[in-house]
């Protein structure tokens, strides 16, 4: 099924070439000395050192995964004295189709006075937090950090249920009851 | 049954087909935009709808497998899908068995080791049942998985075969299925002809097994041609759309 030139559409199970001439790349698998396609998409051949590499790609390759250094948007799901668990909802300006799990440790909340941080005075469940990915962590969660002026809580609701207004880097105020609550507030730059 | 012959002396069936002919098959991939992959299939009057979500994080952490993907499958029949209205569309013994059969079939076809600690959800619904429901569901799930971009070894194509008057019948409908004859459901990977599902009801002499099996394999290959055409057309549409925007 050639479209233009040598652009070829392949479907799963189709044999693409011999393992003696080609190496199996993304979207393919090898079996009994041959390379087969495992996706429906376009066939690509790239020259390698010794062999050419065959891979199959689809057009909609838009799956975004948080990497080290990415700025992510999260929602706090649970809080305990040592760390809080968050659900990563977006990476930079892209919303994720499926949420990922992350944790913000007590030591990573701010850069100064690390030993005096109290998690429940920085984050509450339901807050929307902007954080940076420090590492991929263990097998279950990304490790995030808010130790920067531009990172922290960007949206929170008070106990009365109203959206709070940030008044300093460590406080937010409820416009309904005027009560102040402690948070690690992000200094949001206008973009 | 007086007046109802499964196979007439001239070799025609009740709906006018010959013994080796399939019913008309209509298939469509990508019918739901919210799902990662979806497909709709009609095999005669049997209509099935399949959706695929994932790979995504496991909803139940304790069930996550560290070396391969976890397949979750749910089969259901609409209450209006049969002549007598069903009381319970999901969760009865037959649906549970079919869910497990579909899950095992696709565990053999999907490259599961590429997504460790992940989960793929498959939901199949029969909208109208007129025999060969299992085969229609398996074919629909194949299209949905390819639409979702999940790596697979090959298509999985399925067909159902019966045996009447010393003649194997292809793609049986409800009347032929309920007449009490033997019923063989077969799913294969068409390129390598490996069997991923083999299920048989009622009695059949071993001497006739090869005839029935050969017709089932031929049916699977015919269905594979149709499935492949559907995916190829969809891939060409997507490809032309991309080339226009560039």
Automatic annotation (TrEMBL), chain A:
Residues 93-136 form the Exosome complex component CSL4 C-terminal domain. Keywords: Cytoplasm, Exosome. GO terms for molecular function: RNA binding. InterPro entries: Csl4 (IPR039771), EXOSC1_C (IPR019495), Exosome_cplx_N_dom (IPR025721), NA-bd_OB-fold (IPR012340). It holds the Pfam family ECR1_N. Signal peptide: none annotated. SUPFAM superfamilies: Nucleic acid-binding proteins, Ribosomal L27 protein-like. It is found in: Nucleus, Nucleolus. GO terms for cellular component: cytoplasm; nuclear exosome (RNase complex); nucleolus. GO terms for biological process: RNA processing. Residues 9-46 form the Exosome complex component N-terminal domain. PANTHER family: 3'-5' EXORIBONUCLEASE CSL4-RELATED (PTHR12686), EXOSOME COMPLEX COMPONENT CSL4 (PTHR12686:SF8). This is Exosome complex component CSL4. It comes from Exaiptasia diaphana. The lineage of its organism: Eukaryota, Metazoa, Cnidaria, Anthozoa, Hexacorallia.
From TrEMBL, chain B:
GO terms for biological process: nuclear mRNA surveillance; poly(A)-dependent snoRNA 3'-end processing; rRNA catabolic process; U4 snRNA 3'-end processing. GO terms for cellular component: cytoplasmic exosome (RNase complex); nuclear exosome (RNase complex); nucleolus. Pfam families: RNase_PH, RNase_PH_C. Residues 21-151, 154-219 form the Exoribonuclease phosphorolytic domain. It is found in: Cytoplasm; Nucleus, Nucleolus. Keywords: Cytoplasm, Exosome. GO terms for molecular function: RNA binding. Component of the RNA exosome complex. Non-catalytic component of the RNA exosome complex which has 3'->5' exoribonuclease activity and participates in a multitude of cellular RNA processing and degradation events. Belongs to the RNase PH family. This is Putative exosome complex component RRP41.
